[in-house]
Write a structure and sequence with these properties.
There is one protein chain. With 209 residues, the chain is α+β, with helices and mostly antiparallel strands. It has one domain (2-208). 17% of the residues lie in helices and 50% in strands. It contains three helices and twelve strands. The protein has helices at residues 35-43, 62-68, 110-128, and strands at residues 2-3, 8-17, 28-29, 48-58, 71-82, 92-102, 130-143, 146-163, 173-177, 183-190, 195-200, 203-208. The strands form two sheets. Strands 1-12-11-4-7-8-2-6-5-3 form a ten-stranded mixed sheet, sandwiched between helices. A two-stranded antiparallel ribbon has the order 9-10. β11 (195-200) and β12 (203-208) form a beta hairpin. The two termini are 17 Å apart. 19% of the residues are buried.
Length: 209
């Protein structure tokens, strides 16, 4: 858990997945990450983990709650990255990051302001069309390369994408099973999350369904 207050200047929603078709069309494209850049990124401190890795999470309501708490989207970009599990450095994955700033620190470019509604709609699709493994870190916040002692960045990582719908829009159906792995019920049911990412009283946490 972590409380969103003035100390948390930025909130990052970072999606990692393997399916290139899930990359939003409107976010800016950065050059693919090199092996050197990957090594440098992994050498940086990742801060303090505040939400342990948890599978089958829905974040469908979190975007609205984050904006109601006074955070605005100020940036979004896509980057193809090197998969650290591939020792040869040939396998990659897709990373899309959306940056939200606390309202008193918002500074938007005219270009991003004009595209923000379209980007937000695609972010809503990412949030609503799949379940994710969620983990979150409270990271240092830097100004001109120097760590700010009284401000933090909350980074919410969303990985292990599990779609809720087929390409034709139909929901993915699964059989319910008992503790022995036997099917129960008369028919399969739509895939359902086990946890939800919520923001209640400015506290970010996961709650079971």
């Amino acid at each position: 858990m972590i409380t969103l207050n003035r100390d948390v200047r930025l909130v990052l929603l970072q999606f990692n997945f393997s399916n290139s078709d899930a990359v939003p069309a409107t976010v800016k494209r950065l050059n693919p990450e090199t092996k050197k850049e990957s090594t440098e990124r992994k050498s940086r401190s990742s801060g303090v983990m505040v939400i342990e890795p948890t599978l089958k999470c829905s974040i469908v309501a979190f975007l609205d709650e984050l904006e109601e708490a006074g955070y605005e989207m100020v940036d979004a970009f896509y980057n193809e990255r090197v998969d650290a599990k591939d020792t040869r450095g040939r396998r990659t994955y897709h990373m899309v990051r959306f940056t939200f700033a606390r309202h008193e620190f918002v500074d938007l470019s005219d270009e991003f302001r004009g595209m923000r509604s379209a980007i937000r709609a695609e972010l809503r699709d990412l949030c609503g069309n799949a379940m994710w493994r969620v983990r979150a870190f409270s990271n240092p916040f830097y100004i001109d390369g120097m760590e700010s002692p009284d401000q933090r960045t909350l980074c919410i990582n969303l990985e292990v994408r599990q779609p809720l719908f087929r390409p034709d829009g139909r929901p993915i159906m699964v059989w319910q099973k008992d503790e022995s792995g036997n099917r129960v019920g008369d028919a399969p049911l739509p895939l359902k999350a086990d946890y939800y990412l919520w923001l209640v009283d400015n506290v970010v946490s996961l709650m079971g369904t």
